[in-house]
Amino acid sequence: MNILLIGCGKMGGAMLRQWAKHKSNQFTVADPAATDLPEGVTHVTQASDVPSAAFDVVLVAIKPQMIAKVLPDYSHALKPGGCFVSIAAGCSVATLSGIVGDAAIARVMPNLAAMVGLGVSGLYANAACTATQTTEVRDFIGQTGTCIVVSSEDEIDRITAVSGSGPGYIFEIMRSYVQAATSLGFDAETARTLVFDTITGTVEAARQSGLPLDELRNSVTSKNGTTQAGLEELMRDGQLDALLQNTVSAAYARAQALK
After folding, report:
1. How far is CA 177 from CA 160, 174, 182, 191, in A?
2. Using one digit for the tens of pLDDT, what is the confidence trace for 224-244?
3. Residues 6 or more apart from 19 whose CB is under 8 A from it?
4. What sign does the CA torsion over 168, 173, 176, 178 have?
5. pLDDT per residue over 178-219, tens digit each?
6. What is the model's pLDDT at position 202?
7. Is 133 exposed, middle or buried (0-12, 13-18, 19+ CB in 10 A)?
8. Contact (Cβ atoms closer than 8 angstroms) between residue 25 and residue 2
9. Are the C-beta atoms of residues 44 and 54 closer than 8 Å to each other?
10. CB 45 within 8 A of CB 71
């Protein structure tokens, strides 16, 4: 496909670097500030440099508050039968339709791990998108990690609360875990290694086993052992479950409000 990427900031740039590795699509970046683009990517700095009806996908990767001002200048670039795709958080399909009219529109919620090809993205396509368009968008978004197609825009908000915002939660948990390790006397570098590799290895073990998480937890918890002692604190009065429930609920409420 021939894809126009409007905006190449942190998220757009991270995803572009993954797409460029696959070399299965052609990309043009429209961004006056873009630098260090991957080899083979065309760069334009203004809408007048973009040919009309040349792109199968116009991918919107600018800040939501800029879309109403910027997107109309580029709407001419989409081929008849093409699809607008937005990775702008909090910008609803209705908002996009109000700008580009009755068009095929897909809304994607990626996350930061797309920068290393391990992202998790949710994809919602409106009724104007054909099954072929949805599959094509899913496949190229999937080049940055996992892409889950959902049937409602509300599910995108829920994905935002779990995986879109999730890296922020995990970074904070890791920061606190590293701090706890240093409190036992480890230097900062050793504490980071212990925590990072413990998390990475545990996630991969869980992924490969396919067993329920509570069963895996129990398998490493000996009666009256060290893990049980730690878990009793972590799970005291259901505080961990309540904290994570409140965390994703707050993010979900905010995602709904932003629309």
Report:
1. 24, 5, 9, 9
2. 999 999 999 999 999 999 999
3. 25, 27, 140, 143, 144
4. negative
5. 999 999 999 999 999 999 999 999 999 999 999 999 999 999
6. 97
7. buried
8. yes
9. no
10. no
Which tokens in the block code for residue 126? 């409106």
What number of other Cβ atoms are within 10 A of residue 40's Cβ?
Answer: 9
List phi, psi (to 5°) of 187.
-70, 165
Banded pLDDT at 90 (limits 50, 70, 90) = confident
Q: Order of strands across the sheet with 104-109?
A: 42-44, 26-30, 2-6, 55-60, 78-86, 104-109, 119-125, 145-150
What amino acid occupies position 244? L
How far, in Å, CA of 229 to CA of 53, rounded?
A: 64
Q: Are strands 42-44 and 55-60 parallel, antiparallel or unpaired?
A: unpaired
Mapped onto helix, strand or coil, the DSSP state of residue 48 is helix
Q: Which helix (H) or strand (E) is 2 found in, with range?
A: strand 2-6
Q: Cα 82–151–16 angle (5° rounding)?
A: 50
* Res 253: pLDDT: 94
Following DSSP, what letter does each residue of 102-144 receive, concatenated? S-EEEEEE--GGGGGT-EEEEEEE-TTS-HHHHHHHHHHHGGG
- pTM to 2 decimals? 0.89
The distance of Cα 171 from the centroid of its chain, to the nearest Å, equals 15
Kindly state the tokens that stand for 113: 């791990």
Q: CA 99: distance to chain centroid?
A: 24
